[in-house]
Structures are given as structure tokens and as C-alpha cells.
Write a structure and sequence with these properties.
By secondary structure, the chain is an alpha/beta fold. The protein has helices at about 1-10, 50-60, 75-80, 110-120, 120-125, 145-155, 210-220, 230-240, 260-270; strands at about 15-20, 40, 45, 65, 95, 130-135, 140, 160-165, 175-180, 185-190, 200-205, 245, 250-255, 295, 300-305, 305, 310-315, 315-320, 320, 325-330, 335, 340, 345, 350, 355, 360, 365-370, 375-380, 385. The longest helix has 12 residues, at about 210-220. Pathway: Glycan biosynthesis; glycogen biosynthesis.
């Protein structure tokens, strides 16, 4: 009786977004040693998760759960209550959802579907018709409302966002094979010989009642539905559910490797970049520290670069991105590189084709030169150069 009364009084919403932001991002090496991949800085003043959060707000979706797991402290601090994205309102909100020990012994999320299952009670509190499941580690702008309209028009049980990729790159992705109506008829996980080039973006719209039924029944029996790509989509296909592919053709980038992260940042420097970051109709919001204006000394030389507030530049910066509060000494050269917040670069330093992590210290005379396909990485708080113990 009490359960029925509680259910009838629950505030009804159409769509709840769940951002899966717990990934370790091990291929980013030093950059994700202490923070989750979605919290990795991007483009000077953003973090990767800002794009999914901003897409939600710009799409009119104001109820967002952020599912964290690996090294969540920095990510939790960044997202907070969602104020930077306008989510701290009575009719919406951002909620951090971390693993916890439940009655049935569940704790760490075992996969994307298991993460949603373990947060079923949070989803039920919002009583949504649809659950929009997003990855928190991609760079793109997307109107999820258009995808939802497509989902409704097809009377779909599940709609998967897909993006055409070069056929030679298709083996890196989960590939959706469709018929002439965009219905998904086959799913291939990283196939050696793909039948199509429609790669999953990690963007899903589920009818919540049906997905919950699948997850609840599986939990009481086999406990096999742990991942959407490997488990849930094949189960839906096997049972003849209506699954459709929604084709997205604008800019989308998976920044899961050092090279792809560097490349995306370098593309970001292009004023005609497809993301159009200066478009006031679809802003990318973020939480940024208060810092004084940048200062360029008479010895500085800046060309084709983004320099964020708080920077002090006495050297030469070319085709690079410098985040907040970076100091570059006289005679130093930074070229084709990404320098994250709080970095101190001494005098007569050479940095090319590199990513420098937050609060790193690069001492006078250091020489850090990588290549376009072999980007050099300096980790957070790491020190390069300077006197050795024997020289001190």
C-alpha cells in the first residue's frame, strides 16, 4: 500500500540523463593516475565532462545523474551541485552517484548497464518515461531533444546514437548494422571485418519501464546484463525489441588516448572548428577559478594560441593551449602543446608536441620534444629538470 502511494505521488518527468563518468581512462597514462577521465582538462578552460553536461542543459534536460567510480574527488568537486551549468534549480538538478554497499552485496559497478541498475532507486525517484544514458568522456555538441523526437517517432524501445566513421577505423568500435528504416538488425563488437561504418557513440535513449524490467529480471536470475554494448543490446535484439540507430553527422571525438586528446585540442585552436565554441546559442559551460588577466611581457611572442586567465608569459608560444595560471619564463618556447593549470615553466625551456599536466614544474633549460604521433606527457605535479640530489 505504502509503495503504491509513494509511486503515485512521485514527480513525473519525461527524460532523466545519466552520465557515466567513472572510467579510469588507463590509455591516458599519467593524466588519469589521480583523476577520472571525464575530469581531464580540455581546451584551456574546460573539462571533458563539460560537453555532456552542457549538451543536456542546452537540450532542455535539467535532471542529471553523474555516475562516478574511479578517482572521483576532482570530478565531484568540479560538478558540485551543477550550478555552473544552471542545474541547481528547483525543477532540476545534478546529483553525484557513487558506488555503495547495498543489501545484496553490490558495490563497484561492473559495467555500464550494472551502473544503471545499481542506481535504479535514484531513477525511480524521478519517475521518467525515458532515460538518456551518456558517456562522460567525449567531445561534441549534440541536441538530445532531436534524438528523443526520433525515438518517439519510431516507437523505439531503445535508440542508439551512431556516427559514420571511416571503414578502416570501424574495427575500433561497436558497429550497428541497420535496415533501410534505420532499425538495428545486428550488433558487432569491434569486428575485424565490419559490415557497416555506423559506430556507437555511447549515447542511448531507453524506455525506462522496459529497461528496468530487463535489469530486474536478470538480477534475480542470471546477472548477465552488465554492459549495454555486450549484453543489453544483444538481449534486446534476441527478443525482437524495436531498436533504432540515430545518425549523428557533426563533430564527435573520443579522446581516450594521448594522441586523440592532443589532436582534439589542436583542432580546437582552429577558429572555424566544427564545435564553434563561440556560438552563444549552444554554449559549453564550465566551472573555472577566479584569476587575474593574462600578462604578456615585452619578451613574449604569442602566435595562434589560446592563453587563459592568470597566465604570465615571457617566452614564445606557438599553436598551443595554456590553461589557468601558467607561467612561462624568458627565452622558453612552447609549440604544438597543451599546458594545463598551474604549470611553471622556467627560462630557456623548449616544449614541443607535449601535454603538461596540472601543477607540473619544468625547470630552466629543460628540453621536452615529442612528435605528432608520439606526444610527450608530463604528469600532474611532476618536476622535470633542475638539480639532481648530487648537485644540490
Amino acid at each position: 500500500m505504502s509503495t503504491r502511494l509513494f509511486s503515485s505521488n512521485m514527480r513525473k518527468i519525461e527524460t532523466l540523463a545519466m552520465i557515466l563518468a567513472g572510467g579510469q581512462g588507463s590509455r591516458l597514462g599519467k593524466l588519469t593516475k589521480e583523476i577520472a577521465k571525464p575530469a581531464v582538462p580540455f581546451g584551456g578552460k574546460y573539462r571533458i565532462i563539460d560537453f555532456a553536461l552542457s549538451n543536456c542543459v542546452n537540450s532542455g534536460i535539467k535532471n542529471v545523474g553523474v555516475v562516478t567510480q574511479y578517482q572521483p574527488r576532482e570530478l565531484n568537486k568540479h560538478v558540485g551541485n551543477g550550478e555552473a551549468w544552471g542545474l541547481n534549480v528547483h525543477s532540476g538538478g545534478a546529483t553525484i552517484l557513487q558506488p555503495y554497499a547495498s543489501v545484496d552485496g553490490e558495490k563497484w559497478f561492473k559495467g555500464t548497464a550494472n551502473a544503471i541498475y545499481q542506481n535504479s532507486s535514484f531513477i525511480d525517484q524521478h519517475n521518467p518515461d525515458y532515460v538518456l544514458v551518456l558517456s562522460g568522456d567525449h567531445i561534441y555538441k549534440m541536441d538530445y531533444q532531436r534524438m528523443l523526437d526520433f525515438h518517439k517517432s519510431k516507437k523505439a524501445a531503445l535508440t542508439v546514437g551512431v556516427i559514420p566513421v571511416p571503414i578502416e577505423e570501424a574495427p575500433r568500435f561497436g558497429i550497428m548494422n541497420t535496415d533501410q528504416t534505420d532499425r538495428i538488425i545486428e550488433f558487432e563488437e569491434k569486428p575485424e571485418k565490419p559490415k557497416s561504418n555506423l559506430a556507437s557513440m555511447g549515447v542511448y535513449i531507453f524506455d525506462w519501464a522496459l529497461l528496468k524490467k530487463y535489469l530486474d529480471e536478470d538480477q534475480s536470475k542470471r546477472r548477465e546484463l552488465e554492459d549495454f554494448g555486450k549484453d543489453v543490446i544483444p538481449a534486446y535484439l534476441g527478443n525482437g525489441e524495436n531498436i533504432f540507430a540515430y545518425a549523428f553527422t557533426d563533430y564527435w571525438k573520443d579522446v581516450g588516448t594521448i594522441e586523440s586528446l592532443w589532436e582534439a585540442n589542436m583542432e580546437f585552436l582552429d577558429p572555424t572548428h566544427a564545435l564553434n565554441i563561440r556560438n552563444s546559442d549552444w554554449r559549453i559551460y564550465s566551472q573555472n577559478p577566479s584569476a587575474p588577466p593574462q600578462f604578456l611581457t615585452e619578451t613574449s611572442n604569442v602566435t595562434d594560441a589560446m592563453i587563459v586567465d592568470g597566465c604570465y608569459i615571457a617566452g614564445e608560444i606557438t599553436h598551443s593551449i595554456l590553461s589557468h595560471n601558467v607561467k612561462v619564463g624568458k627565452g622558453s618556447i612552447v609549440e604544438n602543446s597543451i599546458v594545463m593549470s598551474g604549470v611553471t615553466i622556467g627560462e630557456n625551456v623548449t616544449i614541443k608536441y607535449a601535454i603538461i599536466g596540472d601543477n607540473a614544474k619544468i625547470h630552466d633549460g629543460a628540453y621536452l620534444v615529442g612528435k605528432e604521433k608520439e606526444i610527450m606527457v608530463v604528469g600532474y605535479n611532476e618536476e622535470i629538470g633542475g638539480l639532481t640530489d648530487d648537485e644540490k
